Amino acid sequence: MATTPGSTPSAAPKTNRLGLAVLDYRGGKTTLCAGCGHNAISERIIDAMYEMGVQPERVAKLSGIGCSSKTPAYFMARAHSFNSVHGRMPSVATGAVLANRTLMALGVSGDGDTASIGIGQFVHLMRRNLPIIYIIEDNGVYGLTKGQFSATADLGSTLKTGTVNELPPIDTCELAISLGATFVGRSFSGDKRQLHSMLKAAISHEGTVLLDVISPCVTFMNEAKERDEMLTGVLYVNTKAPTFLDMLNITDDPLATLPASVVRPGREVLEQVMEELR
Ligand SMILES: Cc1ncc(C[n+]2csc(CCOP(=O)(O)OP(=O)(O)O)c2C)c(N)n1
Ligand code: SF4
Ligand SMILES: [Mg+2]
Question: What confidence tens digit (pLDDT) does each residue in 3-27 have?
């Protein structure tokens, strides 16, 4: 290492097993409110991916619409990214993973994106055991559209405006377990240690991971939950279930790399199909 005479050599940056520094896992500067829980979750994702030595270019970040769904722009700039339509991330993620199983899918969604407009797509994703880490950044409100209650808001929780929620919440973890997700957990954006460990475990899991992360919206919500009232941690794990890729016997190679001779049926096959339809 080159040093100026009289100066002490500066320490080389710490790197992971790929020789990458934590800087290689960072993204753009956040535009979310100061103190938003979602920012803390992005930080934990950066740390966990760095420590696990995940190649950023192997990751596909997928999201819907919402403050939470904007966050993939704030971590892992070197990864692939697809910001989809409100509540429609699961179908985009399914297509991406089926087309290229070498990708590690990381879905980031909100409670509105998942449990309100997106509930139909969410339930079908959870029952397929598609390999994906699906994070719900759960604040009980539609933060991006200025704080309407979502379907996960606690009964009796209040907005800063004083409006009280009178509907019972959907428990996304309970739903995911009942539908067949194979790694289900709940954490809190402010619990650095727990969330960090759960993300690292999630990265190692093969199958659908659902992490519901309580993530306060400091701008619109008066928090009804407090950390001590919530049961957090990994709630369910099943490492034996076949993944959707196994069930469909999906080839190891990305579909886009397969030659026409493999993906296009020959004339005889087409003639046989036509014959069967006659
Ligand atoms: C089809 C459609 N309907 C409604 C909207 C308006 N909209 C944008 S974000 C959002 C809710 C986001 O809430 P959530 O997923 O909880 O994310 P947060 O902002 O709280 O992180 C809504 C209703 C939209 N963009 N598209
Ligand atoms: S409005 Fe709420 S959810 Fe959106 S960035 Fe601000 S604090 Fe976060
Ligand atoms: Mg929300």
Answer: 445 555 667 779 999 999 999 999 9
The closest alpha carbon to 109, from 129, 126, 127, 133, belongs to 133
Digit-coded pLDDT (tens) for 245-259: 999 999 999 999 999
Q: What is the DSSP string of 136-193?
A: EEE-SEETTTT-EE-TTPPTT-EETT--B--SPPP-HHHHHHHHT-SEEEEEETT-HH
Closest residue by Cα to atom 13, ligand 1, is: 142
The C-alpha atoms of residue 112 and residue 252 are separated, in whole angstroms, by 34
Reading the block at residue 49, the tokens are 């991916």
In whole angstroms, what is the distance from residue 182 CA to residue 127 CA?
9
Sequence-ordered strand ranges (E) for 20-103: 59-63, 80-83
**Cβ atoms within 10 Å of 273's Cβ, excluding its own:** 10
Give me ligand 1 centre to Cα 144, in Å: 6
Sort strands 158-159 and 221-222 into parallel, antiparallel or unpaired: antiparallel
Residue 127 DSSP class: T
How far is residue 187's CA from residue 208's CA, in Å, rounded to a whole number? Answer: 17
Identity at 88, one-letter amino acid code: R
Residue 148 CB less than 6 A away from ligand 2: no
CA quadruple 217, 223, 224, 230: dihedral positive or negative? positive
| Mean pLDDT rounded to a whole number for the chain | 94
Measured from the Cα of 144, ligand 1's closest atom is 19
The Å distance, Cα 101 to ligand 1 centre, comes to 29
**Does 150 contact ligand 1 (Cβ within 6 A)?**
yes
Q: How far is C-alpha 27 from the geometric centre of its chain's CA atoms?
A: 16
β-bridge mates for residue 110, sequence order: 137
Q: Is 55 in the pocket of ligand 1 (CB under 6 A)?
A: no
Let me know the angle formed at the C-alpha of 209 by 52 and 216, rounded to the nearest 5 degrees. 90
